[in-house]
Amino acid sequence: MKEKQGHEICKVAELPVGERVIVEINGRSIGVFNVEGEFYALRNLCPHEGAELCKGTVTGMNLPSEVGEYNWVREGEILRCPWHAWEFDIKTGKSIFNPHKVRVACYDVEVEGAEEKAVESFKVGVNDDEMVVVYV
Ligand code: FES
User: Fold this and answer.
1) Which residue's C-alpha comes closest to atom 3 of ligand 1?
2) Cβ neighbours of residue 111 under 8 Å, at least 6 residues apart?
3) Which pairing describes strands 38-43 and 57-63: parallel, antiparallel, or unpaired?
């Protein structure tokens, strides 16, 4: 099996909470998302009919509830495909409607550069050099 390689995407500060960036790595379009300070990477290809999934709306979801009640949860964690509105969990790539069978590929993401800069960062109070790195 081929070993995964890290690809620097951007500085952490350039991808704020709730934002995404779409990049090309080894010919694959990949969306990188910041969900509440954690980073996730998904293939920008919907498993339904191939839309650019990562350009879809980032939203939340309703849990089952009584008539007239709304139980809105996970705001900012759900990605809705722009073509036919299939929804996916940004954290796992699994679909909401059939998580065991329908999913989009996802990739490991690391924040790198923090440990080496720990002493300096403490002094200045900002980790300007931390990079978001996707492993493909
Ligand atoms: S192409 Fe994404 S839901 Fe149809």
Assistant:
1) 84
2) 12, 39, 130, 131, 132, 133
3) unpaired
Measured in Å, residue 8 CA sits from the centre of ligand 1 at 29
Helix residue spans in the chain (DSSP H): 118-124
How many Å apart are CA 77 and CA 91, to the nearest integer? 7
pTM: 0.88
- 78 CA distance to ligand 1 middle (Å): 14
CATH class of 6-135: mainly beta
CB-neighbour burial class of residue 52 (10 A; exposed 0-12, middle 13-18, buried 19+): middle
Give residue-wise pLDDT tens across range 13-62.
Answer: 999 999 999 999 999 999 999 999 999 999 999 999 999 999 999 999 99
Q: What ranges do the domains of the chain cover?
A: 6-135
